[in-house]
Amino acid sequence: MDDWRRGELARRAGVHAETVRYYERRGLLPRPRRSTGGHRLYGEPELRRLRFIKAAQQLGFTLAEVRELLRLRLSESARCAEVKRRARSRLVEIERRVQALEARRRALERLLRACEEARPASDCPILAAIEQGAVPPAGAQGQAQAGCACRAAARGDARVKHDNPDEEEP
What we know:
By secondary structure, the protein is mostly helical. It contains seven helices and two strands.
């Protein structure tokens, strides 16, 4: 069995030593064995578990969900259907976040089209929209609040009039 100290385990897993300590405190990694001198010792099983945790996080699972996946992985009675249900739930959440990011991207694109670079920053529609909260909140489906022209620009309202007649309407 390998006898690594925390720093070596962290190096092999590609994480910081503090991450290892954090996972231990959270119960994601078991308490390590100790050397006769009192040093924490780790080996391949801890490295595999640490890599499992990081891979699950890269798929978007929260630490609470990772803990549950670890429990299912070690359970003799657990079935793949339970894991699949959790993965499907995570996918739904990821899709919701992607939609929110796409709404933010569309709003920012509309604001960029409404911006005239020669204007003074005090008259910038991007800054005005940010100041007035006319950007989609997390989870929004691209809906900006109604109100001023900058909010309408964030929504993509075609009725917004531009000072520059050469600029295309959004």
